[in-house]
């Protein structure tokens, strides 16, 4: 080793020891007669001192010449600091340097290696190896490591076996787009990278593995929305001989364990809502329940008046903004403008001020009286001092709009405390969702999800009403996990594929091996997959996943550091039997 | 849960308990008045009993109809067995069944689900989900899980951080062939799948992560030799501020830990040989040292006689076969034929019988006398009763031939005990190897490996003689890990690339980002990567890796279960801007 200690471990108990340290020059302060250097490594910062009384002249000169991010090795003696720094664990000591070796020099870095850097996103990505030196990014990566270690230890203790499934698999047109990989040894043929190990984990259940997990990369060649990555990591899990309740309990256990050991937060049991309830109460299947503002449906108490907007609406629904009666007229106009933006798309917003004296003042005073408003206040749980915001229109649209407003208000009111954790389960998802563009049903979760067993007949008569044994785990307004009980018999799987518009041939071509497997004693099974990047970010108290990924790609799917993707040689294309257009 | 207990856990202490079990019908024996069914799951086998006295008639009938691999659920009472089976942990009890539910039926499986199956390799691969039900494969996968858990726990305890590096990277023409991945969002451009995370782990060192590891899939589009896979798993590791000795100690520690906790074998310290020594003593850089048969070089004691074959040989070298004097003339002719096969390529073999009375009898008695043979015996450590086998020719060729013979003899003599573990380090590999086809030097390890610091000047004068700080860990004749101290300054890296025939532009295009990174304070660093598939197989006492991989590919790189790779839609090709030829 080039060092005897790291830069985070020396204390007053080490005073008078001779030590060798290595690291990067974080900064140096040259006061002429004395030079201090902050030496940094992964473990911390230790102050080095060179002073004219005790340090020889050549060494003093060398120390003065050290630039930021130089890599150095020093020998010296641990001494007590004259002025201690209680902000860092090594702040009581410093190293009186007797030898200095420059292991590598450094050009001036393109941004400061500080917690708050002056580097913009693109620059930080291009020099990601420098960005990782910053505490914030470095600690995120260490945090991610701790989370995955805990996940593995917990699941292993519960008899789960981590099994590696293949990355070079077969392309299926279902769902989001596959990345494909041309095969040189099988010209004209392609592998695909997995969007998830779904079929393989089901085959492991057929194979009797009983409890499987894997922390695994998955790939999706989709147009990237903000904060999505073409390659992402899942905690992928599957269990045999289970019902939905067993899976919810098992993975509630895992999540509780993580919250406890990682965040020190104990949560007794996670609330549950059905999909229908969540949509009704929060307008959203991944509600943030760190704060209230539940929807109050007002149709019953807004009809038969002269206000046509409400009379003609499929849904009239409001939320109470805590303390919102303080909003000025301008604040409220601003909110109205916000919901009318094309991204939200509301046609307008009705509001009711709940005065401290128990009276109400509203934008629709012409049509409704104080008794009406009292009813509205009751249904939205508005208290004196609140503001009721009401939207109306088509049910699905207005729910989405009010849900967006609810989140925006929570943001403005600072109700989304990243140190608070509010998990919940959403259950009973619809099996199918209507694709109005393609005029067909898609599987809401995926085509292997089992319908509720007593609703299979409804597939023929009212497919949209069929519910699935499918569930999501939601944390702080983000879906962190989702899963389902799977179909495990060939006939139901064939029926499901038929309803998804697969011909018998297509079904056989794409899922034949799975349906064959179902004929050889497939056990009942189900599972769940967690989005690790998102989970880690939320547990880490942050919203963006990018800084929990060592080498992320940008919104165009590019790695700007290594400049990938890139053209390849014609020779390489020839060998693959390919031509670019 | 469909069950209260699994099939491996009930004991006499559970007698009289009512239980529910699930699993697969391993076999059933119908004796008319009584039917026994062996119920199997991942955890074991439990015997079910249905008997005419205590079981109702319908249930008796249902039990008789159960086929192999049916998935069933039974309720019943734990009772003591009349005739106990001490071969299985549940052998003292059985379940008197009161209820039976068939959860899924099964077609007759295409091969028997037994430890010794009647299924051939291709059939087992096609129905891998059934193959995994067999104890041998299932236990291998569980074994692999245990090994990886131990690796992660050990390295984490030593302050290593597991960091996920990207799978969608950039193609480089260096070394074996990349799989490429066309990008839809960047038409005409390609990602590549990593052959290893080499550059990323070096960038993590530049980024100050200090100690990194990752258990990670790697990809190589090579013509597959037997027992190679296009996707394989590495334990990939890197450390900063280390010298070779630190890496050897750290990973000797890891390997000792695995041998101890996984195999119960304690090994004090691993022997070390330089590459030159290993080639001289074993003719091989991955010698199996579970047995002796060290090479004895005989040039000095075979010259100046009339036997021209030896006089004209660059190397005359022999090994002593323990007890080989027992071989019949036919046995020896057979050995001579074996070394003359084109795969080995020796032109012949000289032998000396070491008789029990201390005399020698040889195929070259005409040219040499008893004193000569005594010298040969001394140099090959042959004892009375042994047979000395001697090959001669060009040094490199004859070493490879004798090494092959040594392994073949060890196999025939049963000297390769899979329960014995003999690790060793091979160090001081040559930096470069001459490619006689391409008429240029290749990096023996990879182009980032550092030459020994005092030998850099030799790169210009005698490149073949330059040794590297590169090392392999060998276990039972297999390279299970290899690594090196890396170059960490731009100038040396540029020099190295120049010697490998890269122009400045090519070097910049392909490794520019790494060389740039070296300019911003790269620390000294080095690492190692273990081939997990091979390591697990050897620790598991087996030679082939395929049954330690859940879903392996065959020798043509095909997954015969899912039938991949496969052609893709023209539409998909169009979107990628590609045409097949």
Short description:
By secondary structure, chain A is α+β, with helices and mostly antiparallel strands. Chain A is 29% helix and 24% strand.
Characterization of this structure:
The structure is a homodimer of 581-residue chains. With 581 residues, chain A is of the alpha+beta class. Chain A folds into 3 domains: 12-104, Beta Barrel (OB fold (Dihydrolipoamide Acetyltransferase, E2P)); 139-163 and 194-272 and 424-548, BirA Bifunctional Protein, domain 2 (2-Layer Sandwich), CATH 3.30.930.10; 291-415, GAD-like domain (Gyrase A, domain 2), CATH 3.30.1360. Chain A has helices at 57-64, 121-126, 128-131, 135-157, 198-206, 244-263, 275-282, 299-302, 308-311, 329-340, 370-379, 395-412, 458-461, 490-499, 504-518, 532-539, 570-576; strands at 18-30, 34-41, 44-51, 71-80, 93-104, 161-162, 180-182, 190-192, 211-219, 231-240, 272-274, 296-297, 315-321, 350-354, 360-362, 387-393, 423-427, 432-435, 440-443, 470-475, 478-485, 525-531, 578-580. In chain A, the strands form 5 sheets. In chain A, strands 6-9-10-22-21-20-17-11 form an 8-stranded mixed beta sheet, with helices on both faces. In chain A, strands 1-2-3-5-4 form a 5-stranded mixed beta barrel. The first copy, chain A, has a 5-stranded antiparallel beta sheet with strand order 12-13-16-14-15. In chain A, a hairpin with a 3-residue loop joins strand 1 and strand 2. In chain A, helix 14 (490-499) packs antiparallel against helix 15.
């Amino acid at each position: 080793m080039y060092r005897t200690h790291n830069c985070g471990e020396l204390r007053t108990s080490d005073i008078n020891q001779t030590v060798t340290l290595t690291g990067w020059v974080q900064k140096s302060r040259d006061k002429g007669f004395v030079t201090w250097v902050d030496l940094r490594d992964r473990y911390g910062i230790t102050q080095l001192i060179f002073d004219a009384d005790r340090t020889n002249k050549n060494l003093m000169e060398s120390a003065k010449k050290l630039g930021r991010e130089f890599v150095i090795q020093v020998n010296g003696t641990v001494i007590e600091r004259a002025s201690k720094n209680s902000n860092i664990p090594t702040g009581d000591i410093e190293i009186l340097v007797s030898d200095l070796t420059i292991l590598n020099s450094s050009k001036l870095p393109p941004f400061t290696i500080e917690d708050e850097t002056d580097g913009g996103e693109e620059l930080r990505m291009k020099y990601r190896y420098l960005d990782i030196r910053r505490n914030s990014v470095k600690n995120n990566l260490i945090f991610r490591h701790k989370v995955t270690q805990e996940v593995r230890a917990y699941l292993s203790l519960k008899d789960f076996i981590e099994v590696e499934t293949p990355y070079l698999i077969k392309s299926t047109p279902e769902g989001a787009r596959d990345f494909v990989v041309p095969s040189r040894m099988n010209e004209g043929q392609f592998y695909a990278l997995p969007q998830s190990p779904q079929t393989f984990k089901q085959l492991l259940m057929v194979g009797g593995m009983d409890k499987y997990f894997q922390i695994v990369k998955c790939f999706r060649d989709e147009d990237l929305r903000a904060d999505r990555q073409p390659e992402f990591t899942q905690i992928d899990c599957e269990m045999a001989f289970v019902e939905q309740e067993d899976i919810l309990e098992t993975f509630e256990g895992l999540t509780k364990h993580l919250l406890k050991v990682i965040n020190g937060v104990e949560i007794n049991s996670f609330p549950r809502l059905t999909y229908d309830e969540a949509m009704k109460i929060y307008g959203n299947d991944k509600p943030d329940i760190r704060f209230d503002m539940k929807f109050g449906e007002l149709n019953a108490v807004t009809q038969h008046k002269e206000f046509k907007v409400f009379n003609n609406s499929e849904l009239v629904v409001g939320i109470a903004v805590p303390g919102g009666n303080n909003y000025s007229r301008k604040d409220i106009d601003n909110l109205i403008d916000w919901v009318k933006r094309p991204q939200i798309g509301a046609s307008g917003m009705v509001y009711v001020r709940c005065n401290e004296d128990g009276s109400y003042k509203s934008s629709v005073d012409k049509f409704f009286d104080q008794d009406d408003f009292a009813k509205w206040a009751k249904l939205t749980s508005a208290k004196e001092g609140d503001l009721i915001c009401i939207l109306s229109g088509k049910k699905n649209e207005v729910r989405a709009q009010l849900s967006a407003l609810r989140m925006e208000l929570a943001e403005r009111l600072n109700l989304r405390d990243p140190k608070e954790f509010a998990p919940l389960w959403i259950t009973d998802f619809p099996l199918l969702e209507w694709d109005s563009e393609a005029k067909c049903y898609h599987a809401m979760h995926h085509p292997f999800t089992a319908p509720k067993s007593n609703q299979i007949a409804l597939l023929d008569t009212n497919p949209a009403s069929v519910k699935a044994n499918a569930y999501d785990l939601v944390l702080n307004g983000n879906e962190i996990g989702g899963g389902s009980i799977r179909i495990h018999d060939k006939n139901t799987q064939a029926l499901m594929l038929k309803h998804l518009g697969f011909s018998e041939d297509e079904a056989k071509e794409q899922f034949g091996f799975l349906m064959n497997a179902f004929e050889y004693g497939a056990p009942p099974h189900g599972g769940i997959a967690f989005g690790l990047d998102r989970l880690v970010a939320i547990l880490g108290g942050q919203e963006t996943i990018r800084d929990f990924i060592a080498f992320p790609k940008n919104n165009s799917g590019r790695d700007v550091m290594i400049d990938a993707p890139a053209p390849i040689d014609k020779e390489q294309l020839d060998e693959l039997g390919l031509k670019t257009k």
